[in-house]
């Protein structure tokens, strides 16, 4: 169609001219990483100062959509590095066979567990938790929550990273009793949203007592909004751990730059940027420590985790139980 | 009848072919890329059942509630009527999450209704659950139903009502002889469109449905892509969705009968019959309250941060406006010839074309987007065509609505004027310019406005192609929410609401100049 063609032409003209002389490093990540308010812009500026290259971020939905996109593109992908998968997606990502070994010189990670994987590089991490406003007395664990009349907002495990985190949290904490926990929770759940944003938005509008988010969420309100009115509820069965990872793409035409970028992700510059833009804990504590305000956050005694390779099978079981319990 | 070269009919066949190629071709592309054919599990069948019955109920309720409102608007003249009609259209063109937030500010647990109930000591009402899904769908689709049925009322030539008045017919007799036949012709199509809108919407069901009970086919498609990366199952579900559309379409079109009122003098309706005013006033007041109070809630929530929105939001707004206008133009260019072709090719072939025009509504944006992605990725960078693809897909998705608005009007003009045009030897451009376009201004303006506004609020395909540099306003709104910036997001939502409405009003107004 004529209109389509002229629209294409318009878009082509509007696209920024790409510097031809410097190599381009293509980094795929999830959308909020590269948005104006995420860590992307600062990381891009800092890396380009040292690399003599053009770092190009492509923001794609959330972590799972990011992986789907790389899978659709396959070995023909433009991506040199993928940033923003997590421990729950690692098995699927590995199975896709698109990533190559990270050449790091045995970094000292500050993670709640020992990191041995040599393909996926952890760059930040956090615990899932229910967040509530000050003045609300939260239950101490899932059983208490199920028995209470506290209302909660959660995300669908099939469309949301925290939603999947909650599913596996309950499953690792309760095993075969997980279906009973979900049945008990069903009358506490106000609604199940597609993603984190909707649930958190509804929570801030006052639709529920608690929302599934991260232990670090109150830090955002405290540091960015100077509002100390939020807290995360410590659960005594422990909190499920999410570790975000990056990996170099095997088919990359810039393998050296890709490796440089993975190392750069672990530098003090990036690590301290991530804390207050991604609102997660740094994978390697920067020299000047955590910003003021983080000391007010809860620190779970127990980190609940799954071997990444067990996640797909566990998810399948847990999802069937979740669906059966909530469909009643 | 003499049949010369008929460029419009040929163009209409072309646009039907384009839609079919886009909708079916993308499904085939997804199938081709899938490993294995895919199979539907019990959860998928539950999703199909839920989708069908909630869509049927939502559609029936929307249409039933819309009839008295459209009737009231058709026969009353009052100050601000035009503005009210434009505002009433707002929910339909809002991005889903924005509208849902507006609804929740009014009907939610901490909403105005429950605050009021609590203040007088009454128990609160729960919106989440099946009732919420239906409420949400009626909120979205009542305005569309009102507008489409109102078009039907306005298309009745004034002479009928004058004749009825001179024969001393009362409101009841007018309803039986003039309005009921019109409704019989218009309602099946309206119900079909809304049924299909409800089958393919998924964020309403997800947010207001309260859990996995409320899983729709579109949601199952999304999960197949995103969660399982099972392209075969996604494509299979898309085929199920298309099959439902075709079946529903065939059913609705076989029920619809063309109105047999004959030709009139091509004038705006004036009414001489006098019915008591209060039922009309009540219908209008209730609809206005239901549809406008949530919008008012959005305005009060978003207004404080509207002027302090970051520049990137304004840039995104500009991009969205450009896409919306291009998309609306493309939609009209595709739909008008299709509407003409449907009328001219006779009953059987015309129905086939009509169903082709409806495909856009049944197509899963995700499947179209993914299919286009698979087809174009080897040749172009996705980010470079993000806006063009968004415009194209939005145009095709808006076609069913445009066709609803244009179809009856085209048929009317063709029936009433084609003999005169033939006898004057008018054909091609002259006929389009002198006969069709002047008489189609109103539905063209309405259809263009609808297409522009729908495109403005769309957050489907763009997410698959956008690379972060070419974000549209809805995408930027989502980013604000994702960065905890709910106040700015509320401001952006208000901006989106304002721009969508303004676009719709401009097109619609353009269509009603002189009227």
TrEMBL record, chain A:
Localization: Periplasm
Signal peptide positions (record): 1-19
* UniProt cross-references to InterPro entries, sorted A to Z: SBP, ThiB, ThiB-like
Pfam families registered for this protein in UniProt: SBP_bac_1
Cellular compartments per GO CC: outer membrane-bounded periplasmic space
**What is the predominant subcellular site recorded for this chain?**
periplasm
Domain of life assignment = Bacteria
Which keywords does this chain's UniProt record carry?
Periplasm, Signal, Transport
One GO biological process from the UniProt record? thiamine transport
Question: Which Gene Ontology terms cover its molecular function?
Answer: thiamine binding; thiamine pyrophosphate binding
What family, per the record?
A: Belongs to the bacterial solute-binding protein 1 family.
- Write down what this protein is called: Thiamine-binding periplasmic protein
Task: State the organism named in the record.
Answer: Palleronia sediminis
From which lineage does this chain's organism come? Bacteria, Pseudomonadati, Pseudomonadota, Alphaproteobacteria, Rhodobacterales
TrEMBL record, chain B:
From the record, give the transmembrane residue ranges: 50-70, 82-107, 127-150, 185-208, 235-261, 281-300, 320-343, 355-377, 383-403, 444-466, 489-507
Q: Per its UniProt record, what Gene3D superfamilies does this chain match?
A: MetI-like
Protein name, per record: Thiamine/thiamine pyrophosphate ABC transporter permease ThiP
Q: Major location, coarse class?
A: membrane
Any single Gene Ontology cellular-component annotation: plasma membrane
Mind listing the GO biological process terms from this record?
transmembrane transport
Q: How would you describe this protein's topology in the membrane?
A: Multi-pass membrane protein
PROSITE patterns tied to this protein: ABC_TM1
Q: Which residues form the ABC transmembrane type-1 domain?
A: 48-252, 317-507
According to its UniProt record, where is this protein located? Cell membrane
InterPro entries for this protein: MetI-like (IPR000515), MetI-like_sf (IPR035906)
Q: Which species does the entry assign this protein to?
A: Palleronia sediminis
Q: Which UniProt keywords apply?
A: Cell membrane, Membrane, Transmembrane, Transmembrane helix, Transport
UniProt KW Glycosyltransferase keyword: no
């Amino acid at each position: 169609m004529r209109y389509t063609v002229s629209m294409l032409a318009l878009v082509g003209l509007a696209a920024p001219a790409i510097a031809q002389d410097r190599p381009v490093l293509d980094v795929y990540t999830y959308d909020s990483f590269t948005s104006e308010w995420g860590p992307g812009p600062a990381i891009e500026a800092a890396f380009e100062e040292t690399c003599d290259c053009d770092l190009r971020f492509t923001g794609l939905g959330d972590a799972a959509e990011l992986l789907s996109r790389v899978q659709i593109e396959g070995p023909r992908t433009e991506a040199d590095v993928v940033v923003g998968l997590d421990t729950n997606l690692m098995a699927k990502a590995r199975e896709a066979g698109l990533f190559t070994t990270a050449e790091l010189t045995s970094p000292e990670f500050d993670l709640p567990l020992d990191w041995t994987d040599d393909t996926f590089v952890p760059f930040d991490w956090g615990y899932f938790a229910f967040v509530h406003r000050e003045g609300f007395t939260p239950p101490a664990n899932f059983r208490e929550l199920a028995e209470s009349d506290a209302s909660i907002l959660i995300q669908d495990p099939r469309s949301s990273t925290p939603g999947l985190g909650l599913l596996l949290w309950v499953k690792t904490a309760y095993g075969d009793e997980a279906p009973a926990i979900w049945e008990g929770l069903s009358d506490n759940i106000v609604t199940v949203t597609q993603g984190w944003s909707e649930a958190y938005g509804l929570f801030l509008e006052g639709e529920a007592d608690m929302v599934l988010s991260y232990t670090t969420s109150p830090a955002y309100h405290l540091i960015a909004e100077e509002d100390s009115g939020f807290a995360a509820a410590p659960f005594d069965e422990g909190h499920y751990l999410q570790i975000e990872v990056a990996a170099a793409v095997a088919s990359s035409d810039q393998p050296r730059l890709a490796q440089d970028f993975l190392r750069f992700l672990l530098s003090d510059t990036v690590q301290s940027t991530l804390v207050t833009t991604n609102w997660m804990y740094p994978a390697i504590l920067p020299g000047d420590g955590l910003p003021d305000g983080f000391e007010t956050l809860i620190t779970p005694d127990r980190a609940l985790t799954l071997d990444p390779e067990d996640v797909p099978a566990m998810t399948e079981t847990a999802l069937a139980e979740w669906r059966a319990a909530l469909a009643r | 009848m003499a049949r010369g070269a008929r460029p419009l009919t040929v163009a209409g066949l072309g646009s039907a072919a384009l839609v079919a190629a886009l909708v079916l071709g993308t499904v085939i592309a997804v199938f081709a890329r899938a490993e294995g054919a895919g199979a539907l599990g019990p959860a998928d069948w539950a999703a199909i059942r839920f989708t069908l019955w909630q869509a049927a109920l939502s559609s029936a309720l929307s249409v039933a509630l819309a009839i008295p409102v459209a009737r009231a608007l058709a026969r009353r003249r009052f100050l601000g009527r035009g503005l009210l009609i434009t505002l009433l259209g707002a929910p339909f063109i809002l991005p889903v999450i924005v509208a849902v937030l507006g609804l929740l500010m009014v009907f939610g647990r901490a909403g105005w209704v429950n605050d009021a109930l609590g203040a007088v000591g009454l128990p609160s009402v729960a919106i989440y659950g099946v009732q919420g899904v239906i409420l949400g769908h009626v909120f979205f689709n009542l305005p569309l139903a009102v507008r489409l049925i109102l078009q039907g009322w306005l298309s009745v030539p004034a002479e009928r009502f004058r004749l009825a008045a001179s024969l001393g017919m009362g409101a009841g007799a007018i309803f039986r002889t003039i309005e009921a036949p019109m409704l019989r012709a218009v309602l099946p199509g309206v119900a079909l469109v809304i049924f299909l809108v409800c089958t393919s919407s998924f964020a309403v069901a997800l947010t207001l449905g309260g859990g996995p009970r409320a899983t729709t086919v579109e949601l199952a498609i999304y999960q197949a892509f995103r969660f399982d990366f099972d392209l075969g199952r996604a494509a299979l579900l898309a085929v199920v969705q298309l099959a439902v559309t075709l079946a529903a379409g065939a059913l609705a079109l076989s029920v619809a009968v063309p109105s047999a009122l004959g030709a009139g003098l091509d004038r705006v309706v004036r009414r001489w019959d006098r019915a008591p005013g209060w039922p009309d006033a009540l219908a209008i007041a209730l609809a206005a309250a239901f549809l406008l109070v949530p919008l008012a809630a959005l305005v009060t929530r978003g207004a404080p941060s509207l002027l302090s929105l970051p520049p990137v939001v304004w840039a995104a707004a500009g991009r969205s406006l450009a896409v919306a206008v291009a998309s609306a133009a493309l939609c009209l260019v595709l739909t008008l010839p299709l509407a003409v072709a449907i009328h001219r090719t006779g009953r059987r072939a015309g129905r086939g074309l009509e169903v082709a025009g409806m495909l856009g509504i049944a197509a899963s944006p995700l499947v179209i987007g993914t299919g286009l992605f698979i087809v174009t990725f080897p040749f172009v960078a996705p980010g470079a065509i993000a806006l063009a693809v968004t415009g194209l897909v939005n145009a095709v998705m808006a076609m069913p609505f445009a066709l609803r608005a244009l179809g009856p009007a085209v048929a009317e003009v063709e029936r009433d004027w084609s003999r005169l045009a033939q006898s004057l030897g008018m054909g091609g451009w002259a006929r389009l310019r002198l006969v069709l376009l002047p008489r189609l201004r109103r539905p063209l303006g309405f259809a263009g406005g609808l297409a522009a506004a729908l495109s403005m609020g769309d957050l489907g395909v763009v997410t698959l192609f956008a690379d972060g540099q070419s974000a549209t306003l809805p995408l930027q709104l989502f980013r604000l929410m994702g960065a905890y910036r709910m106040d700015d997001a509320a401001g952006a939502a208000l901006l989106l609401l304002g721009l969508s409405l303004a676009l719709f009003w401009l097109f619609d107004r353009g269509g009603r100049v002189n009227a």
